[in-house]
Amino acid sequence: MSAITRGRKENRGPAQRDTGANSGNDRFAQCHRRYGSSPCRQKKNAQTTVVWAFFAAGWISHPVYAILRLDKKRRASPVGKRGEPGTQMFYLLLTIVSSTLISIVMRFSEGRIAGRISMLVVNYLTCMVLAACHTQSGALFPQSEGLGSTLVLGAVNGALLMLSLVLNQESITKNGVVLSTVFSRIGSLLVPIAISLCFFGEVPTLVQAVGAGLAVVAIVAINAGGKQEAASARQLLFLLLLADGLASALSKVFDEVGDGALSGHFLIYSFAAAFLASGVLAVAKKEKIGRHEVAFGMMVGIPNFYAARFLLMALEELPAIIVYPMRGVLGIVAIALAGVFLFRERLQKRQWSAIGLILLSVALLNL
To answer: In whole angstroms, what is the distance from residue 133 CA to residue 127 CA?
Structure first.
């Protein structure tokens, strides 16, 4: 350091000297004096959240990407055939874990974001980027006979994703949380099974049918007992059931009628359509995208993409009568346990009994 620079630093008063590690605290103190504590803490927390979002994105994406690469090598190998013992349930379990992570992050976002639709815009953009990164073909519209059906199914799937979200919010306002949740989850379980039964000839055994019925009873039981309101819009509940069910069933439809080589493009088109629809809705509601919306949108988008990706892979291995009930009820168990251990929630005896009923239904579905 030169003598001139050293002299300047010595001539500065104690409040003006740069204290190195304390300079950040000085800036925070200046912000506190000017604007008050709340805005400054929000700014500091937003910066911390963004950093953790990028950190989580890197650590979550790397092992999952490795799993997908191993799967690609397994399918290319003459030894690795579909339906091997030990791999049949692997992708279904990964679907359940990814879906549970979505709910946990959404729970953490409560009270921390100003616009939920804005967060979903970032979520679908993240899903779209990840789908493009995992697509084998570099072309957005590859030359294939199944491109047309993939485009249509993807666009419809994306529209249904946003439609079910809008209907869910509207139904919660008019019918309450409990009824809306029950109808949404029953729809995502029964509609795919009905479509598989009617159009794709997947006939369940008697034991599996009983297991699916117990799963429906368990869904109603675990969501009952809260603050219930009379259904003032029953038609809205039916539309919610149908929209959620069709959005879940389109993965099965693509697995049956679509080109398996374009599964990555199906996800790209689905998330692109949902991204456009959510963007239009965010503009209509005049929601702005802030740092918290970006951070939580990314953290929701990563498991959201992998939940959809692993669901397609699970449907290649297992029939819908097993995949959809197990995804629904085991996801509920995982979310309930996460609430107990992460958010200090307490389950009632009725809910523990419902979890026991869920485990029984899972056992019957696998017989």
So the answer is: 10
